What does this fold into?
Amino acid sequence: MIEIEQNIMAKNDGYAARNRQRLQGTGTLALNLVSSPGSGKTSLLVATIRALAGRLPVAVIEGDQQTSNDADRIRATGVPAIQVNTGKGCHLDAHMVGHAIDHLGLTDNGILFIENVGNLVCPAAFDLGEEAKVAILSVTEGEDKPLKYPDMFAASSLMILNKTDLLPHLDFDMAACAANARRINPTIDILHVSARTGEGLADWVEWLDNRRKAVLARSIAVAEAQVARLRLAAGE
Amino acid sequence: MHELSICESIVSALEASARREGFSRVTKVRLEIGCFGGVEVEALRFGFDVTTRGTLAEGAALEILEREGKAWCFNCSNSFPVTRRDIDCPGCGGARVTVTGGDELRIKDLEVM
It folds into this structure.
């Protein structure tokens, strides 16, 4: 009998820690975008890239079982994108994302969007080294999605309710959806966005700016600690 | 079905442990799985049989110790066991409740030869 007391996810978590350290080192805000298929993740990214208008370096990792359609759509905006095809796989893992980062060649102090495979179950279990998970829920889905797929909404820091331009045609109850999400995750942020009309995009960009400042503040603290150690070693 | 990838992680952890400890066969594996570990125990059993075929753990018994979830109430600071995330505090009835435990996904111990 051998006691090993090891986390099953240790291998993935090791790769995730390495990714996180690299991203931190380059002052990059990395976000893991998760949703069901068809929530409008790629359209939201295209609209986000346009809204940022070259103000920050942006790069995108696209995860899908097959095709490079999504990466092609992102590249058409002039932003570097890499497509990861998971084949039979239902999620991205930290090892795949590490390789994708190698090929992307990140620019410092920007944003890396990782668009996960459209799936509200499996991606919840895999840390990719991101700063936060962002769940995107379109208003053409049910307002009870957070209750049906609680692990994903529990793991996410922000829920974006997308396609709000369609609300006049639907019976979707925004308040009920927000209450369901907060029941699963009392601290989750919630934004209302229409990638199509641009409504709410300014709030999303503000959220990105705030998270990016928090990441940069941490990178600055690490760099300052390093400088202090070096000064001490130099006898200053 | 991310249970298959999880089983592949288990097999590579067993192989690493075999190299470290110098054993060649695993006859039993005990896992601790929390109710918020994001894993379906039956799918895990199925995946374990499939992924251990042809490895050092082929035919090994799999014992799963299921761990209960724990939650904490923002309103009254009560801590209590839960099995779901959408639950009210049994103490004060408040709905601002956050899960604080039950996400275990651990290999506890092995029987080897």
